[in-house]
Amino acid sequence: MHLVIGTSGHIDHGKTTLVKALTGVDTDRWAEEKKRGITIDLGFARFTDDRGNTLAFVDVPGHERFVHNMLAGASGLDAVLMVVAADEGVMPQTREHLHICDLLGIGRGLVALSRADLADPELLELSAEDVRETVQGTFLEGAPIIPVSAVTGQGLDALRAALSELVGQVQTHDLEHPFRFPVDRSFSMKGFGTVVTGTVLSGRLRKDEPVMQYPSGATLRLRGLQVHGEAAEAVEAGQRAAINLAGVAKEQIRRGDQLAAPGSLITSYMLNVELRLLASAPADLTQRTRVRFHLGTQEVFGRIVLLEGERFVPGETQLIQMRLEQPVSSAYGDRFIIRNYSPVFTLGGGRIIDPAPNKSRRIRKELARRLADLRGDDPEALVEQVIYLQATRGVKAAEGFIRTGLPEKAFARIVQDLSSRGTVISIEAAEKKVIHAGTMELIAQFIERTLANHHRHFPEREGMTRAELAGKLSLLFSEREVGTLLQRLVRQGRIAQAGQSYRQVGHEKSFSEEQEALLERCIEVIRAGGMQPPRRSALFEACRVDEKVGQRLVNLGTHNKQLVRVKDDLYYTPDVVAEIEERLRAYLAEHETITVIDFKDLTGVTRKHAVDLLEHFDARHVTLRLDNHRVLR
Ligand SMILES: Nc1nc2c(ncn2[C@@H]2O[C@H](COP(=O)(O)OP(=O)(O)O)[C@@H](O)[C@H]2O)c(=O)[nH]1
Ligand SMILES: [Mg+2]
To answer: Alpha-carbon distance 349 to 611, whole Å?
Structure first.
């Protein structure tokens, strides 16, 4: 078993010294750290206990200016070793770190009362009491408080034993979810290239598997993996790992980036979250407050949008929206921390409940009410609401986990249940996705309105084709998806279908017998013209119709495929166009090219008809024009 333990506590309380006493490693690596005797950035060390468990430490800086580095190290910790100097007691960063670990949901740990050699028994007891009071109501309430001294060695064995006890409390690491690894360091090593380190949050990565860099979305190849300094075939949740990457410079990947299974995170500038504002926050949180948002090892600036009214007082938990200045890649349930922009201190933190909200205004109005289901623990309500909130965008099967945190199978089963009850609707086209019945209803109403409009404008037509309707919905759905929506409405009897055309139930094309007879007459006149039918005005004259009526007739004839529009003022019957095309193809099969004059000879039409026909065939991709001749396309 392996455990990753983070130190926490105020500066100079002995964290680094204690880690060194336990592991023999001085984690203050930088010259600057050694010179100033303070920890600036994260340090790493480990030891193996007498049961063979590996206990890895992430030593964090205590100074308030470096809390952002502490936060980067807090990602993926199994447990916390809170260090409080016995001779000083609880100090500001003792509290701040405690709050952060509490908000991040780390869940377990213990307290070392350090520098015990500097405190007499009375002071030691006072400090212990101070600690007990401070941790009340947090995850450390009731945790062991162990006096230790790195100088005399007092308590170190007890501390080691207590740490080993923690191992037993960590159930299993999260291997159910896809591989995820927030990068806390990136450097290049001679002969190896770029290496990144971090704590594996979930899943497993094998050496031959592809991995995606987030938020950039680049797919990276692995050169090698290391766990605790030794080459490994795979790394998995709960391990400190080093990953050697091929084809990426160390500047192209840095702290804050994540490596994860391809497609397992969503990237967005906007997040809907549940936020707990610490009781210690100095003031209400107001609309548009600029804050520092910390997710994993990443820090991004952003503003707060309140969703539940205008007041958010310290100690409360509310749903808010984060509008970030840079994109973050996340999934449902991710923990985050927010800190004040300036001066910098921790304000609160919480959980992401929508990693990429739909921006529709209609959805935004309902958000406060709808989001409530996303924070609860009813998975069915969660899935239904997640699908509802994505509106027409829908939720793809592959997104189930990212948006609900539920394993793929559990998500699929709930979708199945919801869909058998008609609460959600599956649209199967290129990729399977589901939309909510409420959204489907809005789409159905839109389609009905569109058809009603169409019937009003074109009473003589039977209805609209799938392609025409898809054109009206092209921003939301592919034509194939529209096809499945239409089929569903036809099955429900909400719209009617005849051949290629869809119409409102009860609509009958109102084309009078007289108009039908007139169209027949026009078609006759056109057919009688053979390869050279009359142009529009001559046609209307021959049919004895005025221009307005005549135009409606030929439009309808074209729509019904009884006529072909070759030019605005020139219509043919389809059989004649087909015959001309056949002749043209035969000619080109023998001669390779054709000029307007050749075409005139071939068909016996006027030059103007010849030009119009050839342009028609160009447009249909039958021919290709090259200067003044044409070839077969
Ligand atoms: N007397 C005594 N001094 C200690 C002990 N542990 C740490 N110190 C001193 O306390 C100071 C701060 O220690 P350090 O580990 O850097 O604290 P950190 O800022 O919490 O990492 C240093 O001068 C250490 O030598 C201890 O057990 N006894
Ligand atoms: Mg230190």
So the answer is: 72
Provide the 10 A C-beta neighbour count for residue 252: 15
Beta bridge partners of 245: 194, 222
Residues with CB under 6 Å of ligand 1 are 9, 11-17, 37-39, 62, 114-115, 117-118, 149-151
Token output for 65 = 């200016």
Note the ligand closest to the C-alpha atom of 13. Answer: 1
Q: Which atom of ligand 1 is nearest to the CA of 63?
A: 19
pLDDT of residue 406: 87
Surface-to-core class of residue 13, CB atoms within 10 Å of its CB (0-12 exposed, 13-18 middle, 19+ buried): buried
β-bridge partners, 240: 199
Q: Tens of pLDDT along 272-290?
A: 999 999 999 999 999 999 9
List the beta bridge partners of residue 427.
433
At 233, the pLDDT band (50, 70, 90 cuts) reads very high
Q: Which amino acid is located at 281 in the chain? A: A
Residue nearest to atom 11 of ligand 1 (CA): 12
| Helices 596-603 and 574-591, packing angle to 10 deg | 120
What local confidence, expressed as pLDDT, does residue 504 receive?
87
Q: Which residues surround ligand 2, an ion (CB under 5 A)?
A: 15-16, 39
